[in-house]
TrEMBL record:
Residues 2-212 form the Glutamine amidotransferase type-2 domain. The gene is asnB. This is asparagine synthase (glutamine-hydrolyzing). Belongs to the asparagine synthetase family. Residues 660-685 are annotated as: Disordered. It comes from the Bacteria. It holds the Pfam family GATase_7. Gene3D superfamilies: Glutamine Phosphoribosylpyrophosphate, subunit 1, domain 1 (3.60.20.10), HUPs (3.40.50.620). It comes from Geomonas anaerohicana. CDD domains: Asn_synthase_B_C (cd01991), AsnB (cd00712). Its EC number is 6.3.5.4.
């Protein structure tokens, strides 16, 4: 993976400078510690930081085509680049490197925006056409790789991370609507960020810029209703076909010129991926996992069983509550958005372990739950729908106790209260958002912790209406299970799992994550399967379990879903040597930032501190986490005039466009090279 950044002039004004581009890419050094490069002409500056994985020699970016008319900066991997390269060679294209970057550049030269349909990978890239004066930005189908942009002072600025944009623009302000979206949806909506005026290029979209601001265009959306012909496949045939697609997705994602490892949680998804990797590995597979000091979150026994089964070279990091508290600020710095969960912090520690072992690439099982029905929210929706058809039933709501025993066993909540909390009335069954109504309802109630000023900013704003405008055409006409899947993919997967819990914490330690379950062929096939093959009764991922029947130990293959979670309430009670929690949650601090009602937050914090462990309730813990992480974000990006600890990048290579030859510079002019050892990490505290 890499980091990219750029500036394009939208009007007649002085050219972007090398100084501006160095200022942008310097805070992102950890995304590409191996090499760096810049391209400049009279309208554009492009910057790149390289984490070399494919075509290690000769792959420094920006890269141009044969004529020097097209230039690319690229973050990601096109896993089918070898097949694409053969096709392009047959069409007369010539290559000077062994990288997938150059393949994408020529693919765009051949097909224009339609090239995106042919790429099997995860990517965010920018291509500058110096002849047309046009910039092309694109992001992969599900949003594995980040890309942000803003229109400012007659310029478009874009980058892999927001901090690069903020480094050269003056406006720093949190968006009240984004804070509201976080509390309701657990993430911002597609295209939105926590920072006013800065947008995210949505997954599956591209942006063409020529002379004036423009809007993103979709080239891919989540597949629509299943075509009839796929229903004629029998369950056995579908299982076999899915297994073939998944194995090929793994095979493609092993393409690298560096060693590839795997995350191993002990759950079904990562165990399948690790097993398929081991089939194709010529050497002993190295695996990495998390362990928790708190037994309620620990899966070490299942991990150890898989390690014995596969004979992997295994490494594990043990996570304690105090570590989560200590590292939360640094994690928020990398994520660039507040969070309702502490789970990104252990993943930050896991990628640190991977980096310390000399690995740059790991495969994970992310995506299986969304594509094949692994989450409790799918079961919850099914039970509530079942209950809503006979609302007077006393037995149907009892099924919820099987899903959430840790909630129903909470002595502070009686059974009658919780049944009312989850209740479903017949008229609610027609709500397109029925599957997520309980979750979002709790989030909406937590908006009362906002200050009066911020609540007034949200007066008349309903984030669900904005979501409805975003969702693909025909969403409301899909079945309940499919609607729930779409919401999880559009919101939680893209907005949190692949971002705060994925790319951002992995790249903080220069680690690239790859996700075979998110191969677009796997997604397309999964969405054409009948819902009953994904969830049979209340058994999640039924078809996936059938497909791995002969791959895994029985106890792993039959193991119920154990959602990845990390301690939240314990974070507030754990002690830390350099404490910041009490200060940020204090009345003076909350009043100074102005986002939250200081008195209400003080009462909530006191309740969390005094309550016995596990009795406060998930929504209360998440509300306090949202407050704390928002305050951290404010301190890091708004209250501070500059970023701490950022070391300046001295590009290995600066390339000048034809328009700057008059300055007496060559096309390629080396500046002071770095030795690749300076990661320039930021101090997020």
């Amino acid at each position: 993976m890499c980091g990219i950044a750029g500036i394009i002039n939208m009007a007649d004004q002085p050219p972007p400078t090398l100084e501006q581009m160095v200022t942008m890419i310097s805070p992102l050094r950890y995304r590409g510690p191996d090499q760096s490069g810049v391209y400049l002409d009279h309208r554009v500056a492009l910057g790149h930081l390289r984490l070399s994985i494919i075509g290690i020699d000769g792959g420094i970016q920006p890269i141009c085509n044969e004529t020097g008319e097209l230039w690319i900066v690229y973050n990601g991997e096109a896993y089918n680049y070898l097949e694409l390269k053969r096709e392009l060679l047959a069409r007369g294209h010539r290559f000077s490197t062994q990288t997938d970057t150059e393949v994408l550049l020529h693919l765009y030269e051949e097909y224009g925006p339609a090239c995106l349909d042919r790429i099997n990978g995860q990517f965010a890239f920018a291509i500058w056409d110096s002849t047309k004066g046009e910039l092309f930005l694109a992001r992969d189908r599900v949003g594995v790789r980040p890309l942000y942009y803003t229109w400012s002072g007659g310029q478009l600025l874009f980058a892999s991370e927001i901090k690069a944009i903020l480094a050269v623009t003056g406006r720093r302000e949190l968006d009240p609507e984004a804070i509201g979206q976080l509390f309701v949806f657990w993430s911002t909506l597609p295209g939105r960020t926590f920072f006013a005026g800065i947008e995210a290029l949505p997954p599956g979209h591209y942006l063409q810029v020529k002379g004036q601001p423009s809007r993103p265009k979709a080239y891919w959306r989540i597949p629509a209703l299943p075509p009839e012909e796929h229903f004629r496949l029998g369950l056995s045939e579908a299982t076999e076909r899915f297994a073939e697609l998944l194995e090929d997705a793994v095979r493609l994602r092993l393409r690298a010129d560096v060693p590839v490892g795997a995350y191993l949680s002990g759950g079904l998804d990562s165990s399948i991926i690790a097993t398929l990797i081991a089939r194709h590995c010529k050497s002993r597979l190295k695996t990495f996992s998390l362990g928790f000091a708190d037994a309620a979150f620990d899966e070490s026994l299942a991990q150890e069983e898989m390690v014995r089964h596969l004979g992997t070279d295994h490494r594990r990091v043990l996570v304690e509550d105090q570590q989560i508290r200590r590292l939360l600020p640094e994690t928020v710095w990398h994520c660039e958005q507040a969070t309702l969960r502490s789970s990104p912090v252990p993943m930050f520690l896991l990628s640190q372990l991977v980096h310390s072992e000399g690995y740059k690439v790991v495969l994970s099982g992310e995506g299986a739950d969304e594509m094949l029905g692994g989450y409790h929210i799918f079961k919850e929706a099914k039970v509530r729908d079942y209950w809503g058809r006979r609302p007077g039933s006393a037995r149907r709501p009892r099924l919820l106790e099987r899903l959430y025993p840790y909630i129903f066993n909470n002595p502070s909540r009686g059974r009658s209260f919780l049944q009312e909390f989850f209740s479903a009335k017949p008229e609610q069954l027609q709500d397109p958002f029925f599957s997520h109504a309980v979750r979002w309802g709790g989030g909406i109630r937590n908006l009362t912790f906002l200050s009066a000023e911020y609540r007034s900013c949200l007066s008349g704003y309903d984030p669900r209406e904005e979501l409805g405008r975003w969702l693909p055409e025909g969403f409301a006409g899909r079945d309940l299970f499919c609607r729930a899947q779409v919401l999880e993919i559009e919101l939680f997967l893209a907005g949190f799992l692949l971002s705060s819990q994925g790319d951002r914490v992995a790249m903080a330690h220069s680690v690239e994550m790859r996700h075979p379950f998110l191969d677009y062929r796997v997604i397309d096939f999964a969405f054409r399967l009948p819902a009953k093959w994904k969830m049979r009764g209340l058994q999640e991922k039924y078809l996936l379990r059938r497909s791995c029947r002969n791959l895994l130990p029985p106890r792993i293959a039959d193991r119920p879903k154990h959602p990845y979670r990390a301690p939240v309430s314990a974070l507030f009670t754990a002690t830390a040597s350099a404490d910041y929690v009490d200060e940020l949650l204090s009345g003076p601090s909350l009043k100074a930032s102005g986002y939250f009602d200081a008195a209400k937050v003080a009462r909530l914090y006191q309740r969390v501190l005094e309550a016995p462990s596990g009795t406060v309730g998930e929504f209360a813990n998440m509300a306090l986490m949202g407050v704390l992480s928002t305050e951290i974000l404010h301190r890091q990006f708004l209250a501070s005039a500059s970023y701490k600890g950022v070391r300046r990048v001295s590009p290995d290579l600066v390339r000048y466009g034809a328009e700057r030859r008059t300055e007496g510079r060559d096309w390629t002019s080396a500046t002071s090279p770095t030795d690749g050892r300076d990661h320039g990490t930021a101090d997020g505290a």
